[in-house]
Amino acid sequence: MDKELNTVIPLKHASFTVDINQGYADMVLHQIYENDKGHALETLFMMPYAENFFMSHIEVDFHLEDGTIKTLKTKVSEREIAQVTYNDAVATGQTAVLSYMQETRQSKNMLRVMLGNFPARSKALLRAFCVQQLEFED
Predict the structure, then answer these.
(1) 95 near 62, Cβ under 8 Å?
(2) What sections of the chain are H helices per DSSP?
(3) What residue numbers bound the domain in which 70 lies?
(4) Is 35 domain-assigned?
(5) Does residue 138 belong to any structural domain of this protein?
(6) Is-contact 131 54, C-beta < 8 A?
(7) 65-121 residue pLDDT tens
(8) Is 113 domain-assigned?
């Protein structure tokens, strides 16, 4: 979703790779987005998650119009600090990534991923690394 215009940015591809080991599912969500606009965008992606779900980190490869690739990786930090870092980067024209898990009455257990200054005429290949604790019944 383009936050400024409140319009949808097409998801070109989505897939998961999953490895189950000792009661945990290690997952990587792969997504490809494309910004075909002539200007940078701020995007918001939301995905529901189950209990016992943990986000490790996100990596995004931006394939730029000139053929170069710019990679951004998130790291875990306090939400307030991460939000300030993201806002500062976007305000200075830098491309930035922010993700956080949010639980509210309206949107229980939602993972939110924001791409700030998603470059014009580029593709974003996003990889979200997650772990889900599995429940087993006897």
Answers:
(1) yes
(2) 79-91
(3) 11-118
(4) yes
(5) no
(6) yes
(7) 999 999 999 888 888 888 999 999 999 999 999 988 877 676 678 888 888 999 999
(8) yes
Q: Which residues contact 30 (CB under 8 A, 6 or more apart)?
A: 13, 14, 15, 16, 17, 125, 126, 127
Q: What total of structural domains would you count in the chain?
A: 1
DSSP 85: H
Reported pTM: 0.83
Residue 36 lies in a domain: yes
Beta bridge partners of 41: 118
Q: Strand locations in the chain, DSSP E?
A: 11-21, 24-35, 41-48, 53-63, 69-73, 96-102, 110-118, 122-133
Amino acid (1-letter code) at residue 56:
S
Any idea which residue has 């024209």 for tokens? 93
* Residue 9: both structure tokens together: 């940015």
Distance CA 23, CA 127 (A): 22
